[in-house]
Design a protein that fits this description.
The protein has 228 residues and is α/β, with parallel strands linked by helices. 42% of the residues lie in helices and 21% in strands. It contains 8 helices and 12 strands. The strands form 3 sheets. The chain has a 5-stranded parallel beta sheet, with helices on both faces. A 4-stranded antiparallel beta sheet has the order 6-7-8-9, with no helix packed on it. The protein has a 3-stranded antiparallel beta sheet with strand order 10-12-11.
Amino acid sequence: MTRILVVDDEPAMREGLHDNLIFEGYQVDTASDGSAALAALKDQHYDLMVLDVMMPEMSGFDVCKQLRSEQNPIPIILLTAKGEEIDRVLGLEFGADDYISKPFSVRELVARIKAILRRTQQGQQTAPPQHFEQIGLMQVDFKTYEAKLGSETIKLSHREFEVLHFLWNHRQQIVSRDDLLKNIWGYDEFPTTRTIDNFILRLRQKIENNPNDPKIILTVHGMGYKML
């Protein structure tokens, strides 16, 4: 059975999510702060974490950064109260897989959980023979969601893989920011083109010899990007 960790410092929110996700058929544990969440992750395997951003002492951003620095691939959905673009952008930059702004419906949260678990579990099924594409400095297998730099495994979030894969499938073509938003996020979910620029910047840092003078993902001014 799928096990989810819910992390929120508000007891009512924590208990409400716990009860509703149990009702949906998940096994659910809870933690009231970031330190407790990290401790729980050391003791138990979780398939996904629902993580509040605004917590005292150790924020959800801090938890997310620490897990990704340790190469922990657990899917993370961030809960943000503000709903401001900067919060969403920072969350994704720190390695979260998705976000949802408070207040939200449990139905929407469950739909996002199912979507992420579907992608994750597909990658965990009997793996086909690996086939790595060389993209600049990095080797990428889009079927198994693996990336390597030499013998070192490189952590990419699901969304980074999806952006990279879309550009790879449209190499030598100009891809607009709107194309990426429409095909990967959907306008209703994340309607800001600045997000794309942040993802491209991070990808360049991983695949380009000199991210400040890119040779693989080029900017076509006024139009978008082109992968060579």
